[in-house]
Amino acid sequence: RTLRIGLIPGDGIGKEVIPAGRRILEALPASLGLKFEFTPLEAGFETFERTGAALPDATVEVLRSGCDGALFGAVSSPSHPVKGYSSPIVALRKKLDLYANVRPVKSVIPATATASSSSSPIKPVDMVIVRENTEDLYVKEEKTFDGPQGRVAEAVKRISERASHRIAAMAGEIALRRQNIRAAGTPSIHASPLVTITHKSNVLSQTDGLFRTTARAALAAPRFASVAVEEQIVDSMVYKLFRQPEAYDVIVAPNLYGDILSDGAAALVGSLGLVPSANVGEGFAIGEPCHGSAPDIQGQGIANPIATLRSTALMLEFLEEEAAAARIYAAVDANLAEGKLLSPDLGGTAKTDEVVEDILRRL
Amino acid sequence: RTLRIGLIPGDGIGKEVIPAGRRILEALPASLGLKFEFTPLEAGFETFERTGAALPDATVEVLRSGCDGALFGAVSSPSHPVKGYSSPIVALRKKLDLYANVRPVKSVIPATATASSSSSPIKPVDMVIVRENTEDLYVKEEKTFDGPQGRVAEAVKRISERASHRIAAMAGEIALRRQNIRAAGTPSIHASPLVTITHKSNVLSQTDGLFRTTARAALAAPRFASVAVEEQIVDSMVYKLFRQPEAYDVIVAPNLYGDILSDGAAALVGSLGLVPSANVGEGFAIGEPCHGSAPDIQGQGIANPIATLRSTALMLEFLEEEAAAARIYAAVDANLAEGKLLSPDLGGTAKTDEVVEDILRRL
Ligand SMILES: CC(C)[C@H](C(=O)O)[C@@H](O)C(=O)O
Ligand SMILES: CC(C)[C@H](C(=O)O)[C@@H](O)C(=O)O
Fold first, then answer.
1. Residues near A307 by Cβ (< 8 Å), separated by ≥ 6?
2. In what order do the strands lie in the sheet with A100-106?
3. Chain B residue closest to A232 (CA)?
4. Rounded to whole angstroms, how far apart are CA atoms B8 and A134?
5. Angle CA(A128)–CA(A131)–CA(A134) in degrees, nearest 5?
6. Domains, chain B
């Protein structure tokens, strides 16, 4: 099978990590029977400055008609509002109807740690945040007007039954898939599948109320009979995320809460540089590291490539190439467990390329 | 001076902790020259079930015309939507124009800890979250309609120049006040005052953009010349909150982000049972523990009274009784630093009353 992969490095360290994704795909063992064709594509703030469009139509067209999946790096947000500029990744998610943003967050106990010490303050984490990716405040319908006491701006938060249903069903499927992997013998901190629905329906009774009741209904389907379902109000979810991260398996949330929760969960495992995501639609997936364009370290060759490598694996999972994905995850975990070649965000001194090469060796 | 204080225990453990607030006020040394008159007032889910109103008009009237301040416990959110019920504390904040929700989060190094061990994973925390308290998604303007693919609900997120300006100015004042207290010799992890403006203007360019530019403008006043100002996008703020909590002094945020951030910050200091808040308007303040009604422990007499005791002190601060407030803070800190009489949320076995009595002894 030949997979056609679009490569969208974007800005900043996006340019340094996306090549790592390409390299690991090219290095996959031939026995997996996978071939790849890569198409470089443009998007981002630099593209906007050069062409006037942060997300050129050509990029969307090629992804739509000529690709099976893609890797997206990161884009810079200008530090002051720039007329006509808006985030290309948000636009891409909507244009390709990539309705789920899937963000697994998992700790790897380093070989040097006394993993079994019960007094250890580091708690094991193995969760997936399943973030709705097309609506909520991200519809970006805003207006500004003059009120009697100064300017007033309003934004629309939109929650639909359709989007809430499909994201909750996706969370249920992911919970089942994780359970199957565990049943096949992968060690895990979770004994049985759990989906936690996050919302703020105590304040937003209609919007978040619709998310909540729709998600409940979707997860009540017979298919999900083995999946336990619970709820957490978003503020208390953030609290619990830090107090009891080991209690969570799959968390499903509207767009903005999912955005916030996934950065919070990344903090639990030590670095945003470790956390992957996939933007998933029908038969299409874009892998995207959760970190941003990191202007502070750009150009130094020290960005952590692991978020991108894991995002590459996650993309493969959603393209139903699970065996290939598993190889990448295992190679990354082996690098982390040994803990010798780590990038600076993890306390090491290795360069991006050195980390990539160490992981390729373990493939 | 006689202060007239409304007491609104609300539901659940609210009933167990609000009496502690009253006791500590009554126990303040006579040398402070303060007298208190208490008025018990009703609000909450039980009140709703009994009277049909979660926030009786009488409660609002007495607070408005017969009180200088108040203590609010907690209210239960029904686990399923109940027609006609909505949160009385959200309504109260708006009705009394208590535009600032001030939430200090501070770690006390327990006497048993090796505070100076640099390898300690516990980082010192000393921050105040200043949350806008009247608008954002809390305007609760929602509607539901039938779309072509099922039901759709929309909520309004409203950000005004006026509310953004006054909350940022409040954050600036608090930063200055904290600096004065430090200058008077109180040890602190902060060398100079800093306000961090939190928003998501990379997506919400008009609403959060207005919050951001207005807050910047308010903090550019000559009065705040000594206050450093920076910004964090809310998702990355949650990440940084957990990776580098020691870097933050005063954080100012729109209502919903402030709600989420303050629960997150509470996790940093070990328990929501420690974290106070004050709802502050012109010449009026309501102290309110950040924890909820905690139905799981209600009736057992084991709720941590410290959030309420600190909220009582915080209320006094905003009623310009800083000496009295300082006495309460010091007594609470002494209890925690000794670490002998702690409630179960902190790993101890003491009952609410035992903790209160220990703190009263130290007053
Ligand atoms: C860059 C920004 C628009 C984006 C988002 O909010 O979705 C980012 O934070 C993310 O999580 O992918
Ligand atoms: C109970 C709820 C409505 C409230 C809020 O969201 O403001 C609570 O979480 C708080 O922080 O005081």
1. A17, A272, A273, A274, A275, A276, A289, A290, A291
2. A35-40, A2-10, A69-74, A284-287, A278-281, A100-106, A126-132, A250-253, A194-199, A228-233
3. B79
4. 42
5. 155
6. 1-125+269-363 (3.40.718.10), 158-268 (3.40.50)
Instruction: Classify burial at A52, counting beta carbons within 10 Å of its beta carbon; exposed 0-12, middle 13-18, buried 19 or more.
Output: exposed
- Per residue in A284-306, pLDDT (tens digit) is 999 999 999 999 999 999 999 99
Structure token digits, residue A30: 């031939």
Distance from CA of A27 to the nearest CA of B (A): 33
- Give the pLDDT band (50/70/90) at residue B278: very high
**Contacts for A329 with CB less than 8 Å, ≥ 6 apart:** A310, A313
Say which of B210, B242, B260 has its CB closest to residue A242: B242
Which residues does chain A have within 8 Å of residue B157's beta carbon, measured at their own beta carbons? 137, 154-157
Q: What is the pLDDT of residues B118-160, one digit of tens each?
A: 344 568 899 999 999 999 999 999 999 999 999 999 999 999 9
**Which among B133, B126, B105 is positioned nearest to B266, based on CA atoms?**
B105
Cβ-proximal residues to A116 (8 Å cutoff; 6+ apart), any chain? none
Residue spans of chain A under pLDDT 50: 114-120
Residue A106's contacts (CB-CB under 8 Å, 6 or more residues apart) are A125, A126, A127, A269
Top mutation candidate among B235, B236, B238, B240 for ligand 1, by most atoms within 8 Å of CB: B235
Amino acid code (one letter) for A359: I
0.85 exceeded by pTM: yes
- Whether B253 and chain A come into contact, CB under 8 Å, resolves to no
Q: B204: burial class by Cβ within 10 Å (0-12, 13-18, 19+)?
A: buried
For strands A284-287 and A278-281, give the pairing: antiparallel
The alpha carbon of residue A208 is apart from the nearest alpha carbon of chain B, in Å, by: 8
- Supply A315's token pair: 């993309």
Distance of alpha carbon B30 from the chain centroid:
28
Residue-wise burial string across B41-78, b where 16 or more C-beta atoms lie within 10 A, e elsewhere: bbbbbbbbeeeebbbbeebbebbeeebbbbbbbbbbbe
Q: Where are the beta strands (DSSP E) in B41-110?
A: 69-74, 100-106
Rounded Cα distance between A344 and A339, Å, is 12
